[in-house]
Amino acid sequence: MTATDDFQDYGNEQEAGEGVARAIKDGLVKREELFIVSKLWNSFHDYDRVKPICKKQLKDWGVDYFDLYIVHFPVALKYVDPSVRYPPSWTDENDKITQSKAPLSETWKAMEELYEEGLAKSIGISNYSGQSVMDLQRYAKQLPQTLQIEHHPYLTQEPLVGLAKSLGIVITAYSSFGPISYHELEMEKAKNTPLLFEHDVVKKVAEKHSKSPAQVLLRWSTQRGVAVIPKSNNQQRLAANLDVCSFDLSEDEIKSISALDQGLRFNNPTNVSSPISTTHGNKSLTTFQYGLPLPIFA
Ligand SMILES: NC(=O)c1ccc[n+]([C@@H]2O[C@H](COP(=O)([O-])OP(=O)(O)OC[C@H]3O[C@@H](n4cnc5c(N)ncnc54)[C@H](OP(=O)(O)O)[C@@H]3O)[C@@H](O)[C@H]2O)c1
Predict the structure, then answer these.
(1) How many CB atoms lie within 10 A of CB 202?
(2) Catalytic status, residue 10
(3) What is the mean pLDDT of residues 9-30?
(4) Looking at residue 5, what is its pLDDT?
(5) For the segment 238-264, what is each residue's pLDDT rounded down to a tens digit?
């Protein structure tokens, strides 16, 4: 099975869909052999916006269902009409981050309906904290099948991983290699953090198993019961990233890598520099200024 994790924030769904259509037409793969994942962007959290945007995304992909459809962030932003700007990004027409009033329960209800109608074979969440997951438990008819989070040896998130496991929610890791995926975003914090590929602990384990540090990092995750979705533009690295089940790390090796945890998070949606506007009752409230550069979320 081939998995693709793609979504509207990138604005590349049409191109990805064209690739899929060509591969199916050429007989390389069948639709049912693919696992196509997309995400609901923050600007479409209002109940009545969820299904129309999911349908647009399906149309862009040229498929009639997603294998998995995920709420990208527990952050609801003001609706942006796709005919005005698509993908909408974080800011509105005034270049401000403006929240919508949609509570997560409303968004999840609409997600459950996508699942019930077969537009998504499974539904999930991303970047939720343990508290948000516990809140979701109170209103969900259907718990998410997966929770996609930043997860690497500098951010092991033991309590969240444990909570998800206890609820039968599969954790999926992004940024499995730690800081490297934030280098292309020019994030200083990531650039100032030692690369996990070059960390002595990781290198030592890799040498012992005759594997690359990247393969060790992925195996560390999967042996902890966390699924991985590494991306690469390089064909050899893509193949190497798939070859991560042919060896096992010892308990001590897993522990030594887990001990690198520093609670170090790179992807943080409250880390914004632009003012945030929101409304409360009839009042328009402005502006929380966090004063740090706004990361671009993949
Ligand atoms: N839910 C969210 O908020 C969220 C946030 C971020 C990402 N994601 C998803 O997570 C998935 C992974 O993306 P990511 O951003 O986390 O990136 P990643 O997989 O952690 O890392 C990508 C980086 O690692 C390098 N790399 C990949 N394999 C390697 C190997 N074997 N050896 C050495 N370097 C290697 C790549 O360079 P090369 O291309 O040169 O190999 C690239 O610089 C994507 O599907 C993305 O959509 C989700």
Answers:
(1) 25
(2) yes
(3) 92
(4) 58
(5) 999 999 999 999 999 999 999 999 999
Strand pairing category for 97-98 and 123-126: unpaired
Pairing of strands 283-285, 276-280: antiparallel
> What confidence category does residue 269 fall into, taking pLDDT thresholds of 50, 70 and 90?
confident
Task: Report pLDDT for 231.
Answer: 94
Closest among 47, 48, 108, 50 to 74, alpha carbons compared: 108
* Beta strands in 160-270, from DSSP E residues, in sequence order: 170-174, 227-228
Max distance between CA atoms of the chain, in angstroms, equals 63
Q: Which residues line ligand 1 (CB under 6 A)?
A: 5, 72, 126-127, 148, 174-177, 180-181, 212, 214, 229-234, 237, 240-241, 267, 297-298
Span 227-242, pLDDT tens digits:
999 999 999 999 999 9
CA distance 98 to 28: 44
Nearest to 37 by CA among 16, 82, 71, 67: 67
Look up residue 43 and give its DSSP letter: G
Please tell me what DSSP assigns to residue 40.
E
Asked if residue 36 has pLDDT above 90, the reply is yes
- The CA 217 to ligand 1 mean position distance, Å, reads 12
- Residue range 2-267 in CATH 3.90.180.10: no
Contact 215, 240 (CB under 8 A): yes
Q: What are the structural domain ranges in the chain? A: 2-267
**Mean pLDDT computed over every residue of the chain:** 90
Residues 6+ apart with CB under 8 A from 217: 152, 153, 176, 177, 178, 196, 197, 202, 257
Give the three-state DSSP class for 16: helix
Whether residue 145 contacts residue 70, with contact meaning beta carbons closer than 8 Å, is answered with: no
Cα 90 from Cα 219, distance rounded (Å): 34
How much is the pTM? 0.91
* Ligand 1 atom 33, closest CA: 214
| Cα separations in angstroms, 197 against 24, 82, 106, 171, 224 | 36, 40, 41, 23, 19
